[in-house]
From TrEMBL:
InterPro entries for this protein: DUF4367
Pfam family for this entry, one: DUF4367
Organism: Paenibacillus ehimensis
Domain DUF4367 residues, every copy: 144-244
Protein name from the UniProt record: DUF4367 domain-containing protein
Region feature (Disordered): 1-28
The organism's place on the tree of life at top rank: Bacteria
Length: 247
């Protein structure tokens, strides 16, 4: 899909075309260690800068964070005030807001430190790890108000519809899909907005889960919206939900 300037901002490619991994085995082991530490130490809605001793010959630090959780649509709207996103209390007449998780960028990824500052912090954390006789050290970080990904859940009984909003990263968003996944896509126009309608087929080749994707906002402040249904919703009803975000 393209924006008003004709630039490609959303595309779908097979997984085999995804960029190959460039990390070394040493780096991969370090990142596994950091991932496990973040899972253990970080509560929801927090961030930390980690230094791990093993598998870290270049004395690197790694930032990890967890999403902020919301159970109230009004509180979420208040938090995102001024952002070009739309948060609804319900979808149609039946699906009510259930919850949301929002990823905000840590402050060190918004105001990035200089190489000298980064090296000094890494050395400080290395010494902390050494003095504590641990193989890691962590420095808490604040989260900024700069959100880049949110997912809201709407429910009617056991039926569920999710709405995901992803902020543009100054380039096309590419969705990679595994080759063995059977799906059909078509471009549709809803109130003049180009959208991508996708049906994922089950093992019998019949239509299964559906979603609809589009880009909203002006150049430089674009958001990708995607609505996923988990309740055998019709194409027409899915389009009606998409329309509610355009009004």
């Amino acid at each position: 899909m393209k924006n008003e300037q004709g630039e490609v901002i959303y595309e779908v490619k097979p997984l085999k075309q995804s960029p190959p991994p460039t990390s070394s085995e040493e780096e991969r082991q370090r990142l596994i260690k950091v991932r496990d530490l973040a899972e253990q130490l970080l509560p929801d809605g927090s961030a930390g800068l980690f230094y791990v001793v093993p598998h870290n010959p270049d004395k690197q630090t790694d930032t990890r964070y967890k999403p902020v959780m919301f159970n109230d649509a009004a509180a979420l709207r208040a938090k995102l005030a001024g952002k070009q996103v739309k948060i609804l209390d319900r979808l149609g007449e039946s699906f009510k807001f259930e919850s949301a998780k929002v990823f905000f960028a840590p402050v060190n990824e918004v105001n990035r430190p200089t190489p000298e500052e980064k090296a000094a912090t890494a050395e400080k954390l290395r010494k902390q790890a050494e003095e504590s006789s641990k193989d890691y050290a962590m420095m808490p970080l604040e989260l900024s108000d700069d959100f880049f990904h949110l997912r809201t859940v709407y429910k009617q009984g056991d039926d569920e519809v999710d709405v995901t909003i992803v902020k543009s990263n100054n380039g096309p968003f590419t969705a990679y899909i595994e080759e063995d996944i059977d799906f059909e896509q078509e471009k549709i126009k809803v109130k003049g907005v180009e959208m991508l309608y996708t049906v994922y087929k089950d093992k019998d080749g019949k239509g299964g889960r559906k979603n609809i994707t589009w880009i909203n906002g002006s150049s430089g402040a674009e958001y990708t919206y995607q609505i996923d249904e988990f309740c055998d919703m019709s194409k027409e009803d899915l389009i009606k939900i998409a329309e509610s975000f355009l009004n």
